């Protein structure tokens, strides 16, 4: 799913794109998932970076990179395997309230009445 170009030399879409892909297991690496679109020149492209790979309603990967040109059907697309980064994601979310992250809103102060 994404807003990326429809091909290396193609324009960006006007509507959000969704594509059914096949997860391939050959040459698997622990930190990556790889996908192909059988019998079609389609896949992730520039503008899709960080987009989701969802399987059965569960986020499995985040769009990472392609080899050579995008959406050719010749090479797999690569996604970072989210399950390998769960501890890091939790650490970032827990530190969101630190100085570098967003702060919760301050409690409202009682209204002060001017003295006459």
UniProtKB/TrEMBL annotation:
Q: Where is this region: Disordered?
A: 97-116
Q: Keywords assigned by UniProt?
A: Hydrolase, Protease, Serine protease
BP GO annotations: proteolysis
Q: Which PROSITE patterns match?
A: TRYPSIN_DOM, TRYPSIN_SER
Q: Which Pfam families match?
A: Trypsin
Protein name, UniProt field:
Peptidase S1 domain-containing protein
For this chain, one GO molecular function annotation is: serine-type endopeptidase activity
The record's PANTHER family line, in alphabetical order, gives: CHYMOTRYPSIN-LIKE ELASTASE FAMILY MEMBER, MYELOBLASTIN
One CC-aspect GO term: extracellular space
